[in-house]
Amino acid sequence: xxxxxxxxxxxRTVPCQTMNNxxxxxxxxxxxxxxxxxxxxxxxxxxxxxxxxxxxxYFEHRHGKKRTLKGSIELSRIKCVEIVKSDITIPCHYKYPxxxxxxxxxxxxxxxxxxxRQRWVFTLKEETRxxxxxxxxxxxxxxxxxxxxxxxxxxKLAAGCIEYxxxxxxxxxxx
Length: 175
Ligand code: 4IP
What we know:
175 residues; mainly beta; two-stranded antiparallel sheet; 1 helix; binds inositol-(1,3,4,5)-tetrakisphosphate; PH_domain; kinase
């Protein structure tokens, strides 16, 4: 048996049989609900994030219990990964936000410190820089209360307002 780092439990099978299953990063972070439906609540959840060569997955982890998968994003579906620059008061414990735009959804993740955020943004950008669905432009600030704080557009899927550089931040490996 081998220890599965994703679920935090023993598994009969080898978890790292292929390179795609190997863990690049793992850490407890906070995420905002993606609000995939119009009626979805806006809330923040502590989740255990695991990045592999193929996916960004997040798990619920209650003390002493097996982790349960809550969501998983195929890296090939990611269109943009960037730091969020904002003047708003961050409504959760972790104060360093970044964004992952995928499909027609937007995931906001909050890291506990600058270094952690830099590691996630750096590694995610490295792994997605050659995707063929990247956006030419993105929104540097939050989508909040029905509008973009950067450009005041009122459509969540409105085109971004500043150029997205998939190689920026990706040249220097963070500590
Ligand atoms: C849920 O709220 C959780 O925040 C989900 O996050 C989130 O899914 C849901 O949003 C949101 O409705 P309740 O727990 O109060 O039901 P998690 O999966 O981490 O538990 P996302 O998509 O953010 O994973 P939508 O977007 O699925 O409606």
